[in-house]
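User: FeS-binding protein, Anditalea andensis:
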Amino acid sequence: MKNIQKLGLSLFFLALLIFNVILCLGTFQLTEERLEEIAKDEHLEVLRKELRPMFGVKYTNSFAFVYNFNNYLDGYNDLQKDEQNWDRVIWDDYTLAAARVSSDGFVANNRLVLLFMTLFMGSFGALIYILPLYRGEPKGIKHNGLMLSSNKRRGIIGITVGIYLILIYILLYWYPAYIVNWVLITDPISRKISGGPASQWFMYGVIYTLAILVMGIRMFRKYWGNRYQMLRTASVMFFQLSFAFLLPEILMLFNQPYHNFINIWPLDYTFFFDYRIDDMLSSGAIGMLMLISGILLIVIGVPLMTYFYGKRWYCSWVCGCGGLAETAGDPYRHLSDKSVKSWKIERWMVHSVLVFAVVMTAFTIVNYFTGYEWLGHSTDMLHEWYGFLIGAAFAGVVGVGFYPFMGNRVWCRYGCPLAAYLGIVQRFKSRFRITTNGGQCISCGNCSTYCEMGIDVRWYAQRGQNIVRASCVGCGVCSSVCPRGVLKLENGNEEGRISDMPIIIGNKSVTIKNQ
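Assistant: Predicted structure for FeS-binding protein:
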């Protein structure tokens, strides 16, 4: 088995090496005909004039091509801005599209081969390594060196992984043209599913989904025998593959708006943007279904489901962000900060993001129904700032890139506005709680160590006090790792859910309220 695992690791790292090397491969040559394929009619003449020096020039890598393309176009745009000719500025970013149509040579001619040699071979190698894991071990989770690994205790490997993920997200959000070759190799999948070429977001969706599926199998191996963990892992894998990845692409195949049915406002902060509303209203019955179902989920579905099952129904069973955190991020769950200070910061930050999202959405809706006569286009600035700070920098760069530094639920704890909304309902009006039996607690600390949301579970368990926290996502791992069965996830009557526990400190009786 050890040899099989070594083979799996070798295949994975070989695929990773090829994946990175292909960024520097291929040739790029822009022609007038290729430019016409991507340019809007109102921009075509300007682009022809400004980019003419590039026509016929063969670039040996995407970096040189992108640099020259931006250099010529930025020169034109800067001149228009200096002269206050705002209507002549080309705000559309053509860089990635130009790199796509200009690509030829090795990468463009071997997309399917490179797809198999990178993403598919990497996934296969990872599976070969994962499948023998935990073989022969007794059921349940043990302290089998998890905290000692350099990858999982902020060692040099973990730091390297974190930096690599951060760089990928920076390129994905702000410099996608530099990863055009990664986009190109996913073209065969995109054309099969949606009938069109791949974008950087489709490429990201493929990698994201593969990560959840492959690491989901690791979760099956790790939690084998625990029915709850097996079911919720299967659930996040199913929802990511079907509702978050395949269904939106299939909708585009039938000329319908792209819509992720499990991405709920305010996590889906663009849901009430004018272009989304117009797309849904102009798309017939399916568009109306998207709009009505989205609103019903926000107003009725979310609070109702959270009342009966807590926020776990979404955060641990459906959400794509939670799905990646629970599968690919599981090895880093013990790195979450359990201090009271981090808890205070968490509450301020996550609820501030929720307020930001609500205010921005309110302005957007008012703007839409007043025909932009009251607020004008002032909400565009809010959209840009929210998209940059929250949608990209926080949810992407920090949310995933900081797994090896701050645990796997950084985004869910500190930034997700939907998690904040769900948490408020769960804290004050829900049947969900984690019950504890303090008489059986041996204070081993497994529960607190493995809590990805930074909750000091042991503190509650020692006192036999129900855990009713807004941040708890009900993953159930604290219960799974408890050697005495002290913790239990329940959906009971609200009565007795929140209790005040008197604690004797010295000669004083202090009432500790469940937070």
